[in-house]
């Protein structure tokens, strides 16, 4: 199953790349590649002028995407930190920008990185924050369990198989191994235990069955006979095209994927999925295995409304909303931002800040910035660019509050 999904997504990304008129920055960001792939290519690639480099980046992005979908906590920690104990805040913020869902994780990591008084952030700090989010989701899910909450919990797992923009229905199914990996990553051992021993890794489990099991409407022998993967893989038309063009190909025989080269993969256990994880730095390849499934789950300690994909707002202290934007930047920051965003022309930066001051909200400001970045071929993930956007975002958040 992993190889079928991986090959299909890589094939579709390659098809988009083959049709590009050139391999420039503008062509990449305006292409029909998914937002995730575009973010990865821009963030991790220093050369847009080569078809070969784009194909390699797309290959790595697809494998990272699959791991993130099924094991988000494990993937975030290993992609951001590799085998080191801390990373600079700016690098953490840059890497997080690649990801496009599970926002309750992403916003918390951004908050930790942005609020840190240290130049770097420790892995254990981020790991603890992610665990607290998982406890909050577990409490919300189990306190007042509902079909919608269960669907929201697994929606990205189903879209991995059926397509990124597919509306998920109750009769759709995924391999039980997907469910096991996802619950294991969150350490939801109580939920995993509800499935008992009725399913093997390759058995397909429908969403309606998952809902009934987790909501306690099935028990023991009441759990229906699972479907086999070859009976349901073509259940719905698959749409793995990443933005606009749905694909209609049907997956073929399930195989176990070949392991990646040593310099391209993170070393973990030998489960098929873990051969797909790709890190961008060779010195970040020695990573810990996914924790084994335990028999107990910790009691939740903190309550947040995070079961849906709406992240909690980060509190910001009130400030004079009439402050001039240019006074929020240090002289050295103005110099660096002018160089990275406005091609070294300081007066253009000052003119842009005056224009931004006139805008009513952050939504319109992002539209303005997008045009500026596109016109000037700005690298969104440069630390000076991130700082520029963060200061402007903070300004409007305080102003609107």
Summarize the structure.
The chain has 401 residues and is mainly alpha-helical. Helices cover 51% and strands 4% of the residues.
Structure description:
The chain is mostly helical and about 400 residues long. Helix content is about 50%, strand content about 5%. It contains 17 helices and 5 strands. Helix 7 (about 105-115) runs antiparallel to helix 8 (about 125-145). The protein is globular. The model is unreliable at about 220-320 (pLDDT under 50).
Helix-strand makeup class: mainly alpha
Rg computed from alpha carbons, rounded to a whole number of angstroms: 22 Å
Number of beta strands: 5
Query: Can you list the strand order of the major beta sheet?
Result: 3-4-5
Q: Largest sheet at a glance?
A: 3 strands, antiparallel
As residue ranges, the low-confidence spans are 220-322
Shape: globular
Oligomer: single chain
The portion of residues assigned to helices is 40-55%
For the termini, the CA-CA separation is 48 Å
The proportion of strand residues reads under 5%
Mean pLDDT: 75
Order of helices and strands: HHHHHEHHEHHEHHEHEHHHHH
How many helical elements? 17
List the helices and strands and how they pair.
Elements: H1 2-18, H2 25-29, H3 35-44, H4 51-70, H5 72-81, E1 86-88, H6 89-96, H7 103-115, E2 120-122, H8 123-143, H9 147-162, E3 173-175, H10 176-186, H11 189-193, E4 203-206, H12 207-214, E5 227-228, H13 229-232, H14 331-341, H15 346-358, H16 362-375, H17 383-400
Antiparallel strand pairs: 1-2, 3-4, 4-5
Helix pairs in contact: 1-4, 3-4, 4-5, 5-6, 6-7, 7-8, 14-17
